[in-house]
Specification:
This protein is α+β, with helices and mostly antiparallel strands. The protein has two domains: 51 residues, Winged helix-like DNA-binding domain superfamily/Winged helix DNA-binding domain (Arc Repressor Mutant, subunit A), CATH 1.10.10.10; 40 residues. Strands 1-3-2 form a three-stranded antiparallel beta sheet. The two termini are 46 Å apart. 10% of the residues are buried.
């Protein structure tokens, strides 16, 4: 649903359409996204229109970026260790073990 809203405003029905869920279930899901501050719902007549609230997502992205940097560094170290081990014991790969 969030991915669909990234393209612009959508009705609850449009958001529910690609999923095998009732309109009531979609509405409950949307209420959770609203409570989390990820979307905003506006009622126009009988139509409920939803739009993405980018602020909280930007905050989450910033927070996750710090961990991405950490894990990328750790995985780089792991790759170096594995390459060094492969270089030290090249016969293991050739034997099919």
């Amino acid at each position: 649903m969030l991915a669909a809203l990234a393209d612009g405003e959508r009705s609850v029905g449009e958001l529910a359409e690609p999923f095998t869920m009732s309109l009531a279930a979609a509405s409950k899901h949307i209420k959770v996204l609203e409570a989390a501050g990820l979307i905003r719902r506006e009622v126009r007549g009988r139509t409920h229109l939803c739009r993405l609230e980018p602020g909280p997502l930007a905050d989450a992205h910033q927070w996750l970026s710090a961990y991405e940097h950490f894990w990328t560094g750790r995985l780089d170290v792991l790759e170096q260790l594995l390459r060094a081990e492969d270089a030290a014991f090249p016969h293991d790969k050739q034997d099919g073990e």
